[in-house]
Structures are given as C-alpha cells and as structure tokens.
C-alpha cells in the first residue's frame, strides 16, 4: 500500500505549526515572562529558538523524510539497531504527553461548555468550586475520554482527510480569534501598563539571571515541541522537493507569533483585573479560575471573550493532540502492518488507561508533565542533535542538498546542530533532572 503524502507544502507547515502551537503558547508565555525578565526574557527566548530549536527541528524533519519511516523505526533505518531505544523514547514521550494532555483538553472543553450554557462564575469561590469538580471524578474522566475520541476521529481520517484538513481550517481560525482578542485587549484600562510591565521592560541583569534563562529555554524548547517524534512522523509524509529549512522557519515563526500575540492578550488582562499574584503562582489557576472571574465583571462582553478564548484554546489543544497520537499510530502501521483505523483505536484505548491517574489527581498530572513533557522531550532533542550532527552528518547534508538548500545554509545549520544545540540542550536536561529530584 502506497504511503500517504501531504497534499502540499502548506498543508505540512500548517500541520507542523499546529503540532507546536498548544495550550502552553496561550498562557505559558505570560506565566514565564511574569516570573521576571520582560524584554530580556523575550530576547533570550528568540535567540534560543533560532540557535537551538530551529536546527534540531530541521534535523528531525531530515530523519523523518530521508527514512520515510515512523518515529519507532526511523532511527534504526538511519543508524542501525543500537539506536532503537531512541525510537521507543519517541513513542513513550508522545503517548505519555497525550495521556495527561487529554485531561487538560477535557477541562478546556468543559469550561467552554459551562461558559456557553451557564455564563461566568460570580466570584472566585464559585470558580474554585467549578474547577474542583472539573479536575477530578467522573467529569474529568468524561472530558478526557471525549477529548481522545475527538483526536482519534481526526487521525483515523488519515493524513490528508483528517490531519491536513483540520490544520487548514484550524490554524487560520486560531490566528483570527487570537488577533481579535489582542485587538480587544488593547482597549482595556490596563493594556499599556501590561505591555510596559511584562513585555517592554528592559533590565540588562536579567540576561544573566538563572531563572530568566531557564524560563526562556523551557518556553522555547517546549513550545516548538521537537524531540517527541511528532514532526518526525509528519515529515515521513513529505515529498523530496520540500525545502526543510524554509518549512522549519515557517513553523517556528508561526509558533513564536502565537506566543507573542497571546502575550498581547494576557498581559493587559492580567493588569486590568489585578491578576499579577495569581498568574505568578499558578498557570492552571489563572486559566480556569482567575480569568473567568475577571471577565465576569464585563457582563455579556466578558462572556463572549471567555467563549472565544476557550474555543481558541480547544483548537490549539486539538491540533497538538492529533500530532501526538500520530506518533504511536504511525509506529503500529509501520511495525505491524495494521490498518490505520485499527491502530488509532488501539492506541487511543491504551492512552486513555495510561492517563487515568492524571485525570484523578493533580499531583499525578504534574508528575507526568515533568517526566514526559520535560525530561523525555529534552532527551529526545539531545539525541536528535547528536544523531544528525555527529553520527549522520552526511545524511543531513545529502537530504538538504537534494531539495536545493544552499551549501552555506547547510553549513550554518550543521555547525549549530553540532556545537551549539548539544551543550545547550544537555544543560536543559540537567535543569530538568534537578527540578524533578527537588520536587
């Protein structure tokens, strides 16, 4: 059976950008910027994205396209049996992230329905009571299940009929909603103060502050999402003509734009509703408790904004969830020869079971986030930079040359992949291990 391919390069770029753009873009940027840094945080974020994330992203694309294999088999096809653990790492990381991500997606969908049908909470106490019911028990399980079923339905429809179709309408709609919210937020009383406090404040000392550096690294690396096999799986469906550096720049550009524009929404909201302390203390608390309560003070307009925000968040969550599910599905199709439908529903059932602890316990959810969305993701990025930068540099250059990438660009990417990415990503891995042990 012939392997599916993207209908166009734009379809791949939108799908890959959808994979990168998730719930972390919409509030993680503001959350980490609020820890300190302001303009310095933004500068460090952009530098890390360009010097580290971009070359690793291109490396992941090269590995997927040059082998045409799933994330499980691609490392073996490229470098032999000793790299098989890397393939299993991709499957484990993507499945583990989706297991708890579906829970967050369920919370988002439930909040959207609640806002549409019953309006916003009257006060913080009401919002906290709603979130307490949302984040445990039967409602959390139902939300998790419905989220996985929706994700599975898209992936089961195939690369063109499901994933590419979702990305072609989902990403443009996401951008339209986000820009609309940014325009609305610019008119809030605290807008200028929000931009000045979080985004435009400059302090040279923050460039050497360990917390600011760690936050910028975390936001950049996790936002792009390379190292978990999603982009690798998508790249296996690419044709040989696509210029990967150009596609990677487009993906990184879209993802970064969403983070910055989301900041243009959240910073004014934070100042206007006096949420400075809440956002610094808890991302989840801000999204599901403080934000709805603050918007309630605006009456019907606040309810409309809340509906748009949570609709935006749900679209972002779905495009990311689809890419995560494609990783184990592609592996079952390649390894066992299963039809797509069978592979999709088998993976969905297993991931639902694996996510049960995160649906029932916030502590379990936090632990899974740290291990699968932190430790394993960074380890995957490190292995990618070592494999394509040091073990298979000829494959890296050959694949890029075949699609018309100039020798100068190839050399620049390879230098960053060999000498810049490994030490920086290794440093991020050390930070993650220390944070996990300390927790």
Per-chain topology:
Layout: H1 9-20, H2 23-33, H3 39-67, H4 74-79, H5 84-118, H6 124-134, H7 138-156, H8 159-186, H9 191-199, H10 210-224, H11 230-235, H12 244-272, H13 276-281, H14 283-296, H15 300-336, H16 340-354, H17 356-360, H18 362-391, H19 393-402, H20 407-438
Helix pairs in contact: 1-8, 1-12, 1-15, 2-10, 2-12, 3-10, 3-12, 3-18, 3-19, 3-20, 5-7, 5-15, 5-16, 5-18, 6-14, 7-8, 7-15, 7-16, 8-12, 8-15, 9-12, 14-15, 15-16, 18-19, 18-20, 19-20
Overview of this protein structure:
- The chain is mainly α and 439 residues long.
- The chain contains 20 helices and no strands.
- Helix 7 packs across helix 8.
- It is globular.
- It starts with 8 loop residues before the first helix and ends with a helix.
Structure described in brief:
By secondary structure, the chain is an all-alpha fold. The chain has helices at residues 9-20, 23-33, 39-67, 74-79, 84-118, 124-134, 138-156, 159-186, 191-199, 210-224, 230-235, 244-272, 276-281, 283-296, 300-336, 340-354, 356-360, 362-391, 393-402, 407-438.
């Amino acid at each position: 059976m012939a392997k599916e391919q993207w209908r166009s390069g734009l379809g791949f770029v939108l799908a890959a950008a959808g994979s990168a753009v998730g719930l972390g873009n919409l509030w993680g940027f503001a959350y980490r910027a609020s820890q300190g840094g302001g303009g310095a945080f933004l500068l460090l974020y952009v530098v890390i994205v360009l010097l580290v994330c971009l070359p690793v992203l291109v490396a992941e694309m090269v590995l997927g396209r040059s082998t045409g294999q799933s994330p499980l088999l691609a490392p073996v096809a490229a470098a032999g049996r000793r790299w098989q653990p890397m393939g299993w790492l991709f499957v484990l990381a993507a499945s583990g992230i989706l297991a708890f991500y579906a829970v967050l997606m369920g919370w988002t969908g439930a909040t959207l329905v609640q806002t549409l049908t019953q309006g916003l909470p009257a006060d913080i106490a009401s919002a906290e009571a709603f979130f307490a019911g949302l984040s445990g028990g039967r409602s959390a399980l139902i939300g998790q299940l419905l989220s996985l079923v929706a994700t599975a339905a898209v992936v089961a429809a195939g690369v063109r009929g499901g994933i590419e179709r979702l990305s072609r309408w989902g990403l443009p709609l996401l951008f339209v909603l986000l820009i609309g919210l940014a325009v609305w937020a610019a008119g809030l009383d605290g807008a200028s103060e929000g931009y000045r406090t979080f985004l435009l404040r400059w302090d040279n000392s923050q460039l050497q502050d360990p917390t600011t550096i760690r936050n910028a690294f975390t936001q950049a690396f996790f936002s792009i999402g390379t190292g978990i096999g999603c982009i690798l799986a998508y790249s296996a469906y690419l044709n040989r003509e696509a210029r990967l550096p150009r596609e990677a720049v487009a993906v990184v550009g879209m993802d970064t734009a969403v983070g910055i524009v989301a900041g243009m929404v959240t910073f004014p909201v934070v100042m206007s509703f006096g949420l400075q302390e809440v956002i610094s203390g808890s991302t989840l608390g801000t999204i599901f408790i403080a934000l709805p309560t603050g918007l309630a003070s605006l009456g019907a307009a606040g309810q409309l904004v809340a509906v748009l925000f949570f609709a935006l968040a749900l679209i972002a969550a779905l495009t990311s969830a689809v890419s995560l599910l494609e990783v184990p599905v592609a592996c079952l199709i390649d390894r066992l020869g299963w039809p797509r439908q069978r592979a999709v529903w088998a993976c969905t059932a297993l991931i639902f079971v694996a996510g049960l602890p995160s649906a029932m316990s916030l502590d379990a959810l936090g632990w899974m986030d740290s291990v699968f969305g932190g430790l394993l993701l960074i380890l995957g990025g490190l292995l990618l930079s070592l494999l394509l930068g040091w073990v298979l540099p000829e494959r890296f250059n050959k694949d890029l040359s075949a699609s018309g990438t100039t020798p100068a660009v190839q050399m620049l990417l390879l230098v960053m992949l060999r000498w810049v990415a490994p030490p920086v990503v290794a440093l991020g891995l050390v930070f993650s291990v220390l944070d996990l042990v300390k927790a």
